[in-house]
Amino acid sequence: MLNPQPNPNYYTPEHEQFRRTMREFVAREISPFVNEWDEAEEFPRQLYRKAAAIGLIGLNYPEEFGGTPADGFYSIIASVELAAAGSGGVSASLMSHSIGSPPILNAGSREMKARVLPQVLAGEKISALAITEPSGGSDVAAIKTTAIRNGDHFIVNGEKTFITSGIRGDYFTVAVRTNPEDKTAAGVSLLLIERDTPGFIRTPLKKMGWWASDTAHLYFDNCRVPVANLIGEENQGFKIIMLNFNSERLGMSAGAYGFAKVCFEEALTWARERKTFGQPLVERQVIRHKLVDMAMKIEATRSMLEDLAWRVQHKAGDANLLVAQTCMLKNLATQTMQFCADQAVQILGGMGYMRGSRAERIYREVKVNMIGGGTEEIMKDLAARQMKL
């Protein structure tokens, strides 16, 4: 099995205690129910409160808002252990605050932080990020949703799509164009829009994977949003979004690594138990080679993930190169996930095609990881530009 001894240069006894807590939580509160939740296309809202109770939701947030200050390795552990349940949909919606709330923490007013963050970190309210539009996703500078100043309010019109926690979300961090005359990144701002805002409509979306995650199309029809809900300075939202993307991509990489491990473990277990022509599958050289190929890619991904997490934490290296490495890591991790999901389904044979196996679900969820947070192609181009190629 792929369970290398944690590197003591990265992981402390406190990290390992958190790993055990996460493992027990996932085994007790998530894994037994993922098939049911996938078919129902949602999971109980109380799971947010349960996750908050073990410190998962508040990870990396200040104590004054109910959070638990932590380094990046706690986040890696959380992503990997959540992946063990084999449901990206549960992970995505349960942790949607990890992309929706950082802009509030980093750039929101003190009043906004005090009002919003304690409720989110307690699992009482759900935070979501809304950037992607029908006309484009990765090209953030080209967003069309407008927010026109009218006294002490902005009037918001436009739409967003593919928004995680879009139906059940309470607080939405929304990218808007506050300067319609400026069609570049300089005209973009971030607004906090609350679910009960008049004119704010949400419709659910059906997806290839992530069934347990609520995903929605958002419509804003003359929504009046207080100027006090501006996150950061007006027309300065693009920088906040870009900083948010870096942490999102690192988190997605950790999750993809975790899902690849699940595929390997499920394939190995099946290969040891399944007999063909009187011998276990694992006795076949071709199967062992598939497993070694999976293990090789998984270990390479883990090595780059942990090294980059350390570099980011200690600000070790040129900032542009760290961005480039984050882009390359996301591609490496999601390609590893794709390869391992494909090989696992192949090794499981007919069982790999049946609903209910973790490999089958992960196979369906590969593409959203390769697209979300920045497509593979965008990641390559951004990395090339950061490296000045």
Task: Detail the topology: elements first, then pairings.
Layout lengths: L12 H17 L4 H7 L5 H8 L18 H12 L4 H7 L2 H4 L1 H6 L2 H12 L5 E4 L15 E5 L2 E12 L6 E7 L10 E7 L5 E5 L10 E12 L3 E2 L5 H37 L1 E2 L2 E2 L4 H29 L5 H30 L9 H14 L4 H11 L3
Parallel strand pairs: 1-4
Antiparallel strand pairs: 2-3, 3-7, 4-5, 5-8, 6-7, 9-10
Helix pairs in contact: 1-4, 4-9, 9-10, 9-11, 9-12, 10-11, 11-12, 11-13
Attribute tags:
four-stranded mixed beta sheet, alpha+beta, four-stranded antiparallel beta sheet, 389 residues, single chain, Butyryl-CoA Dehydrogenase, subunit A, domain 3, Butyryl-Coa Dehydrogenase, subunit A, domain 1, 50% helix, Butyryl-CoA Dehydrogenase, subunit A, domain 2, 13 helices, 15% strand
Q: What would your notes on this structure say?
A:
The two termini are 39 Å apart. The radius of gyration is 21 Å and the shape is globular. It is α+β, with helices and mostly antiparallel strands and 389 residues long. The longest helix has 37 residues, at 237-273. Helix 1 runs parallel beside helix 4 (72-83), helix 9 (237-273) runs antiparallel to helix 12 (358-371) and helix 10 runs antiparallel to helix 11. The protein has a four-stranded mixed β-sheet with strand order 1-4-5-8. The chain has a four-stranded antiparallel β-sheet with strand order 2-3-7-6, with no helix packed on it. The chain has three domains: 13-121, Acyl-CoA dehydrogenase/oxidase, N-terminal domain (Butyryl-Coa Dehydrogenase, subunit A, domain 1), CATH 1.10.540; 127-236, Butyryl-CoA Dehydrogenase, subunit A, domain 2; 239-386, Butyryl-CoA Dehydrogenase, subunit A, domain 3. Helices cover 50% and strands 15% of the residues.
